Records
---
Amino acid sequence: MLIGLSVLSFSYRCGLIGRGTPRAVSHPLDVEDIVTLATRAGLQSIEFPLSLLPDLSPDRLHALRERLNLCGLTPVADSEIANVDLLRTHIPAATMVGARVLRVLISPVLEGYRRPFTDNWPAYLADVTERLRAVIELAAEHNIVLAVENHQDATSADLAAICAAIDSPYIGVCFDAVNTLVVGETPYAAVERLGPLIRNVHLADYETYPTTQGWRLVRCALGEGDLDIRRLLGQIEKHAPDVACQIELVSHSARHVRILDDDWWQGYPPCDVREVLPVLRLFAQTMRLRDDDWRTPWERGASEEQISLYEDQQYAASIAYLRTIGILPKL
């Protein structure tokens, strides 16, 4: 199995959170630093936002491609919310850096809470589909797949519908295991539904903390949380064996899934309660209490040193876990 590292595992140390505030990291890591971390761990892939590069000049992109080739790393590039003009820039840039997959987002929605963003989600999805359709020939010309992510907004049905509407080998899915939970699905059911459409995987784990409105999902190292990593990897190996699985430990802010709140459901079509029971059962298995301190070091206002150490320790523990279960070779 191809295991990689997403830059977003180090979102604090790379300067992606706290930017422009007194809490910003003093000396941000760049993509070259993440390449070093991935290489030292013996990983085979790396995922990074194109926006993290100082510029997208051909010289810079070709130099990075050479470095990645020397390190044996397969790149996956990240764009932003689907935008025709931006994708017309990012598609050739991703190709120049050696990527064959370009991750694309659908919306700015977080925590599955669609209602404040739009009162007509199907119409919005149709608009996003047309934006992607407008650049699919360019993607084909550059032999790159646009992988649409379930970024705390889209269900597996939404992603499957986008892919079916465009009907091209150059459209697929970037599957984030934890984000399925945020829209009321289990990752195990979502993998079964999306199967061969998956072109990239974000691998994370989480701890659940109950609230009066639902549950908070808090980042943790792989193997230390509530996700059945072994089961998930087995499914990915069955349905999408050749895709890269990126370690992405991302958010320093807990995600509050208000799935017990009537207002949260206003952004979704009616459904049979039995469709939601699997994820409710997963959440209900947590032994944590409502009064337990769920805050990450970032949310507690910890120092730069403490937050950086938090990221480093979770990454190291994740690598050790993947070695223990035989996904990565033991040293």
---
Amino acid sequence: MRVRKTAVIAAASSLALLTGCGAADMTKQASPFANAQGAKTVTLSVQSWVGAQSNVAVAQYILEHELGYRVDTVQVDEVPAWDALSQGRVDALLEDWGHPEQEQRYVKDKKTIARGGELGVTGHIGWYVPTYLAKKHPDITNWKNLNKYSHLFRTPESGSKGQLMDGSPSYVTNDKALVKNLKLDYQVVFAGSEAAQITQIRQFAKEKKPFLTYWYSPQWLFKKVPMTEVKLPPYKEGCDADPEKVACAYPHTPLQKYLNADFAKKGGEAAAFLKQFKWTTEDQNEVSLMIAEQKMTPEEAAKKWVDSHKSNKSTWKKWLS
């Protein structure tokens, strides 16, 4: 979620269906209800990290219980999701971390996808170490000092180099280029999925072991495992334009929504609602924590969020206006 360009969310069995071992490309198994003319149906693309699942859970709950729609969800990897959206296999994508090539192709050139507005959440990818390690070695939070500590991060997977842990290979990441271009003595190792990455992070933290990981916010795990960001060379517009030459930090990205262009025009109340759907990082994290940590189903978490606070009600009521 990267570039997110993209991120990368539990080890709990309740999330297994949602996260899997890196989201499979389900494009060809899209709902038969997607883009159905005249039917009160909506098909939403659900990404494999729990923040995106939280968006979809709450949108689905309100569409079904307040607007009377039948909602289907399809799990699709980030780039294939754009193809599915363009083809009308899904109607909406509620959390995109920035895919300029797809935006140029489908929004600007083909005009098969329409902008759906900002989600209200700003995403940021970065490299993190556990805060207990940063307190012990304060200078470790500057990338220039990482080689000094690479021996602390060695694992069987990284060999003689330090391990930089990433999540799913399906996520967009600059990490291999960063390691190479910054001349760091590290090896990027993929956990396989967000769920697997979370499991490893929590195990390292339980044992108070050092770890360096690609991670992102918003993310509920920060509440359970405090982490401190490692400062990479400052991000400047265009510094990540060439994937092979990236040597800068990830940007802070206002997350965007996109709709199938036909659905945006003819989707009625559902399209209008999804364009209005906008909440805060705190809102998203609240639902994510219920799903990932409290083991609620997405529907249970959505219902609790919708019903629990007057402030929440005032937020989602605006989406219906």
